[in-house]
Amino acid sequence: MKKAGFKIVENEWIPLADGRRLAVRIWLPTSAKKSPLPAILEYLPYRKRDGTAQRDDSTYPGFAQAGYVGVRVDISGTGESDGGWDDEYSPRELADGCEVIDWISRQPWCDGNVGMMGISWGGFNALQLAALQPAALKAVIAIGTTVDRYNDDIHYKNGCLLYSNFLWSSTMLCYTSRPPDPDLVGENWRKIWNNRLDFQPFPLVTWLSNQRKNAYWKHGSISENYENVKIPSLLISGWADGYINAPPAAAAHLDHAKAINGPWIHKYPHFAWPQPRMDFLGEAINWWDKWLKGVDNGVDTLPDYRAYILEAAKPRLHHTTEPGRWVAERTLPAPDIRARDYYLAPNRQLLDIPGRSRGETLMSPQDCGASCGEFFTLKPDGEMPADQRYDDSGSLVFDSGKLHQPIEILGRPRLRLKLSIDRPLGNIAVRLNDIHPGGEVSRVSWGVLNLAHRNGNEDPEPMVPGQAESVEIELNECGYRFMRGHKMRVAISTNYWPMIMPPPESVIATIKLGPDAAISLPVRAGADVYEMPEPDDENPLPPYEMHAPEFSRRWIERDFQTGESHYRVIDDSGEIEVPGHGMRTRHRHDERWTIAADDPLSYRALSRYACWMRRGDWSIHTEAESEFRCDADNFYIKASLRAYESEELIHERNWDEIAIPRDHI
Q: Average pLDDT in the 471-475 region?
């Protein structure tokens, strides 16, 4: 396929040393025939042919027109690539990635300089490959990424088991079970598919078997050895995303690193919601020009950290634009940000001086947290945190008085507590909220701690019931301006469902108020404004024809006879046709999370995920179903995977119930 100034190579093969081939789609500038150019790699399991095609066509044409070869590669066992998928960021995946980078650098259209970028998975492995230092890799852009796979991914957070650990396993079970496109691999497609289905792992077994921060999670966590990343790195995320801590952490620890946090969900920032958007293509091309072409354009003198400060952002059904402004910090740590303590005091007060010492007890209902939203959001609607008043009703809350002057924060709040619990194991969840004059309550930041992990994530140690200890809970990065007339609130709960797994027993926590209980806020002066260009094209995604409408629903059911709460999600992409080759795809997932208000062992989860692909007379679909339950000693998981060709069942796998011991969770 030819476009103005470049052509698209729909499929080519990258040979690996062990005989496997990885499939690649290439955006090749016509000028590369005369003079080799730098190349930009994105390396994913989400299928270049149909999965990411729409977003790829919003970025790589712009790169090609700026003089860069775009290279989009499917990870082994996904899309059209050979082999089987074994795990996320596995040693084999990263070793393959190094081979891919070397192959790109040796192509006649490449001048030997390679950049790597991606969002989420592609942002993760871009940083991980940078740490392996392949010679041709000269710069990376990582969006929605992490530097710490244990504490800042979808699996665990400060020792708490995240709901998304289960959900993502079900998603990947279905995603990676799809076949290659027969148009690209020919009649061999069915054999490749069957081999792929035979190889398919149930990833939850691995992820749930590693419940503390061990070698499994340290692999690929660049925070373990920041010094291994020696090339320029640009990290970007959004406040509505779950992956918001990596950009400033990387900018503070890496040489030649820059960080950006905007108001967005888990999407590329030139088409993400809420607005204002960012001119990602312009930002990225400047980054590549500097580090891949040697253009002296001032990129190296940009502020270390640029961030969007939200102002009085309300909880609402659909977030289109968030009020606020861009600011910049020249260096990190920022010299103009000062820690300011606010103390938890009697009568539910949040004071700037310590109140008198007193104990407060707390036992949240098991369904406290239902307004938490998703860990990483793909839509700016019910996936974002709702009004916090319901969750606050099951929490211990501490409110400031009405603010006479705005308070602006940028960084990670930290809550210091002296507390005891009446059981060996327990969790603490903390939210920093904004109370609006009309009564709405917005979540500004949140953090959780499995108290067995209070001294670290590698060797958890139960609490001694009734014995008070000092703990610190670090909340997520945030940029927020509490406006005049608003109130600040600290909300503390012993549960945060369905976001985190409850402990085996209901827990009563006793918190000592006074000098030992304070939240430290990263306060900045808040008088500056930074100009951040927005994209010229408000709709950069190419239009795809919809043959069946999308559908989404998210709700909570409470059964007043059984005491159970059910958190339900149904999301259907509708049927979408990819232009050019006519592949039609559809995805649907159905989730149910259940818990009884007084019984943590009633926690259950069910996920059903289905994918359809069809073109003409050819059609397939796959279905993955996963279940999760627990008792005091074990987690119990099971799954099934079914594959259909023309609605005929051609493959079925079942993972019978597996018991995995609870490790201080």
A: 98
**pLDDT tens-digit series, residues 154-195:** 999 999 999 999 999 999 999 999 999 999 999 999 999 999
Say if CB 639 and CB 170 are below 8 A apart. Answer: yes
104-162 residue pLDDT tens: 999 999 999 999 999 999 999 999 999 999 999 999 999 999 999 999 999 999 999 99
Q: Tokens for 254, please give them.
A: 């890496």
Q: What is the token pair recorded at 328?
A: 């910049």
389 sits in which H/E element: helix 389-393
CA distance 217 to 210: 8
Alpha carbons 499 and 428: distance in angstroms, whole number:
12
**Cα 425 to Cα 176: distance, rounded to the nearest angstrom:** 36
φ, ψ of residue 383 to 5 degrees: the values are -75, -20
Three-state SS for 264? coil
Please give the Cα distance from 630 to 657 (Å, whole number). 11
What's the mean pLDDT in 331-337? 93
Residue 164 · residue 171 · CB < 8 Å: no
| Structure tokens that stand for 567 in this block | 């958190």
According to DSSP, the β-strands at 407-411 and 518-524 are: antiparallel
DSSP class per residue in 334-385: -TT-EEEEEEEETTTEEESS----EEEEE---TTTTTT---SS-SSSSTTS-
Distance from chain centroid for Cα 336: 29
Convert 523-532 to b/e letters by CB count within 10 Å (16 or more is b): bbebeeeeeb
